[in-house]
Amino acid sequence: MTTPLRLGIAGLGTVGIGVVKIVRQHAALLKARTGRDIVITAISARNRDKDRGVSMSGYAWEDDPVALATRDDVDVYVEVMGGTDGPAKVSTQAALAAGKDVVTANKAMLAIHGQALAEQAEAAGRVIRYEAAVAGGIPVIKALSEGLAGNEITRVMGVMNGTCNYILTRMEKAGLSYQEAFAEADGLGYVEADPTLDVGGIDAGHKLTLLSAIAFGTKPDFDGMELEGIERVSIDDIRAAADMGYRIKLLGVAQRTGRGLEQRMQPCLVPANSPLGQLEGGTNMVVIEGDAVEQIVLRGPGAGEGPTASAVMGDVCDIARGLRLPTFGQPAHTLETATRARSQLPAPFYLRMELMDKPGALAKIATILGNSGISIDRMRQYDHDGTNAPVLIVTHKTSRAALDDALAAMETTDVISTAPVALRIEHL
Ligand code: HSE
To answer: 245 and 200, same structural domain?
Structure first.
């Protein structure tokens, strides 16, 4: 007769409550699939008395997550509190040291401390699973580390922050300003307590860091990621991009280049009719390319109680079944230190600028681009207000370095009235 798998859950927010509900509602299903009862023995959260809409009376309570993580009647420590350091990290370390497996939704902790935690887990013969940390309910960690294990992965990209995608979608569909769309998302409870995590691209950057480690066999390197948020995307950019057949997305891309690993999370233009271009609202999408499989596209809810709890429970079921994999798809000590390559591969760029409406202004800009070796693909000038003329330029493929030279040269002219916005165009 098999013994039950006993969970200790730290954090009773959206994810934790979702896990409690699934364990209760699907007890028979989980047993049928894993061959074991899956039970919750103990819980911990900041506020014991809060009404969570679900009775917690059957579970032992711990104020201290470390005490929970090290209890004798806990086999798997489910860390769904969040936070890069502090209680999340300390309790995870304590759980591993006490011989527990860990399931977490904590992308920030793993993006920063994942290598050390993976080494600790593997030295102790324990596993850390984190499907809920990346793209909510989409089983992308599993796809990448298991289903695609026979491929050399060539590129991973995606939209992995639902809040940003919601804001950008609302700007385009409802003509809202960035501030109006942000306020709407905030009112719906989408935005993290620290909004910079979402709109600054940090949350999505953490997620891409984890996918990149698995895809390319490198130590998670969040500091090596080029990061830019959506705060500077204006309704003018959204409209201009749409006018030229593109949509603006906070897009993450990780790929090997001749000089090293390129990792970036930044607003990009993608063709409006592409799968990424058609992604609306809070939905996430991850595109994975491998030498054998070619391309797969995964799409689904990136946040919320059900989707994140679904991902946590997938990990719990694997542990119950005895499936034990290294944290980042290969033993932690075999992961290479990534050589950082800053956006090496040439790409077309979108430029929007306000030019002073005087003779030769456009010619000066065209000359600067030409001098930097940048060829113009398309150009549009919109109605001007008598003083300034909004101009859009789409370049042919160019390096970021050449573009930066050209942008710096533009700043020194007397024809630009607002600094140009430059966004990469990513063709899929
Ligand atoms: N705040 C995230 C998002 C979900 O908007 O996608 C948690 O990572």
So the answer is: yes
Lining residues, ligand 1, CB within 6 Å: 161-163, 190, 192, 198, 203, 302-303
**Domain housing 213:** 140-301
In a domain, 167, yes or no: yes
Widest distance between CA atoms in the chain:
87
Residue 16 in this model has a pLDDT that exceeds 80: yes
Atom of ligand 1 nearest to the CA of 203: 8
Q: Per the structure, how many domains does the chain have?
A: 3
Residues with a catalytic annotation lie at 207
Q: Are residues 13 and 81 in the same domain?
A: yes
Secondary structure element (H or E) that encloses residue 79, with its range: strand 76-79
CATH number at residue 408: 3.30.70.260
> Ligand 1 mean position to 141 CA, how many Å?
16
Confidence bin at 1 (pLDDT 50/70/90): low
Q: Which of 133, 167, 197 is the last residue of a domain?
A: 133
Length of the chain: 428
405 Cα: distance to centroid of ligand 1 (angstroms): 35
CATH of the domain at 187: 3.30.360.10
Q: Report pLDDT for 342.
A: 78
Residue 223, C-beta contacts closer than 8 angstroms, at least 6 positions apart: none
The pLDDT-based confidence of 418 (bands split at 50, 70, 90) is confident
Q: Give yes or no: residues 282 and 363 share one domain.
A: no
Q: How far is CA 371 from CA 285, 406, 409, in A?
A: 38, 8, 10
Nearest residue by C-alpha to atom 2 in ligand 1: 161
User: pLDDT digits over 328-341, tens only?
Assistant: 999 999 999 999 98
For ligand 1, atom 8, the nearest C-alpha belongs to 203
For the chain, the first-to-last Cα distance in angstroms comes to 52
The per-residue pLDDT of the chain, averaged, comes to 95
| pTM, two decimal places | 0.95
The conformation of residue 375, written as its DSSP 8-state character, comes to P
In-domain check, residue 204: yes
Rg value, the chain, Cα: 24
What CATH code is carried by the domain that includes residue 90?
A: 3.40.50.720
129 and 144 both lie in a single domain? no
What's the rounded Cα separation, in Å, for the pair 378 and 374? Answer: 12
Q: Is residue 336 part of a domain?
A: no
Rounded distance from Cα 36 to ligand 1 centre (Å): 32
Are 237 and 372 within one domain?
A: no
